[in-house]
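User: I'm putting together notes for a lab meeting next week and I want to include a structural view of one of the chains we've been expressing. I don't have a solved structure, so I'd like a prediction I can at least talk through. The sequence is below, exactly as it appears in our construct file.
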Amino acid sequence: MIIGDLCDEYAVLVSQNKAPAYGYDNTNVPYGLVVDDDGTLIRVRPLGDFSGKKPVNIIPVPARFPRSSGIVANFLCDNVTYLLGCDTKGNAKRAAQAFQACSELHRRILDGVKDRAASAVCAFFSKAPQWQTAQRLMGDEAWKSSVTMNFALEYDDGGRTIFIGELPSIREAWDAYYGRVDDADESALVSSLVSGERIVSEKVHPKIKGVAGAQSSGASLISFNAPAFCSHGAEQNENAPMSKREAYEYTTALNTLLADRDRVQRIGGDTVVSWANCGDNAYRDVWDQYMGQSGGLSEKVVVDATRALAQGKPYDYEGIHLSPDEQFHILALSPNAARLSVRFYLTDTFGAFARNIDRHYRDTAIRRPVYDSTTSLPTWRLLNQTIRTQSKTAKVSPQMAGAVMKAILEDTPYPMTLINAVERRINAEHDISPDKAAIIKAYYLRATTNAQFKEVLRMDINEESDYLPYVLGRMFSIYEQIQLAAIPGINTTIKDKYFTSASATPARIFPILGDLAAKHMRKTWKSEGLKVKLDKALGELTGRVGDRYPSRLSLEERGAFQLGYYFEKQKRFDKANKNNNEQEENND
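Assistant: Thanks for the context. Below is the predicted structure for the 588-residue chain, given as structure tokens.
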């Protein structure tokens, strides 16, 4: 269960000091409002790093309350509308209401707290809003840029300035307020979906931030906002009951994971986060490398680790310890207006994921040109083969990207949308790149039941195969080589004009190609040795085909045709062949 696993991850993050304790949020607070004993604002203090475009000062503050269109105040840290009653949107009445709500919240929490700082806060809110004082202290330019940012209440006791939330008495008051449970009779208690215990269900959960494409103010992972989504009289998130603490824990864990931008992947339009039960970042480093993102480990370490883990063996190297039995979680989130959709959630041992990824890399391994040093095809590059990369507006289908990723991680057949998209690009480009050939090979390795086709789904050419579509693809490559040798420097080849139609309707196109090849053979070539060699290769392939040109090839047969063409084309770039050709030319 996603929520339960995130709650478990929260406990790990807290133990590593990577997430705030229950009731607190790590929030960017660039300014402190310093008040004295009588509640007068005496200073506005810049906090943190102001060297970038936006100031950064991430500190733990009392948890933010979910805020949509209504007035909801926060404790000790908020914007100028709530803390200073400043009208920033041309609505003075709403600003006054926000300041009043903030004042009432602080009085309610601090009631009975015997502390000079608590008295100073109450005195601060008993005065008229002091936004003009803050503007004067900051200066017009700094004030104008800060009105959307967070301010924290600080206290000057005459000797030092501190964030009021750090004081033990204030923390105790806040913890008691935030952890309270409203009185409810037994009939109002429900079973938690997370723990199974009887709880008072939290109606509104904190927002999730950091998902690409979602609202910058945050979006909901669990949300019910219309009667059609509700049942049995339950309101809002009572339809997915969990306690206030459970809602806080899963949202805080997810927000903490998403905030670590170096360890968040983008697949299509989805945002993907991952974590290991033990909390060791080495697992995420290896996972980042799988996704084609630098994870801080060398390629050799990742390859060696994958091989060991795929065989069920632990991996140890220079302080890195990876266990194949460690539980690992992968969550893909898709933006959907004010909500988030779960594209997929996978949980398994890290060894199982390593084994499936290793299988994917072996399936996509293919003979490549000498200049192409690719050892494993990253997922992002695989997906880019489905779009026109020169276009600035072309985007990978998020649905297809999620389905491809899920197929890789679960070792299941790739989605048909992948091969359809690749075929569209091949038809448009009239060529097969090494990456596209790798996709065709990998797709049909998992999809075809044709024994003859399986014989040619290998890393390099199968010269013994008589599978007709494959042989026709090889023949097309020979026809192209004949044309290029007979007419050096030709701008438009038979590949540009006939490749798509030849792979779809061979009976209509191959007689034309045969006639063209005969004309090209009658020309005088620079290398007669090459002419003899190509004529012999064409004769051998033609003998296998005979007069059996199919009227039409299926999608699967076109894949075999394209692989035959690709492998035959790569064959002519063999170093040995190059040396032979040079020797033949020298002998002519």
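A couple of points you could mention at the meeting. The first helix runs from residue 2 to 15. Residues 579-588 have pLDDT under 50 and may be disordered.

User: Perfect, that's what I needed.
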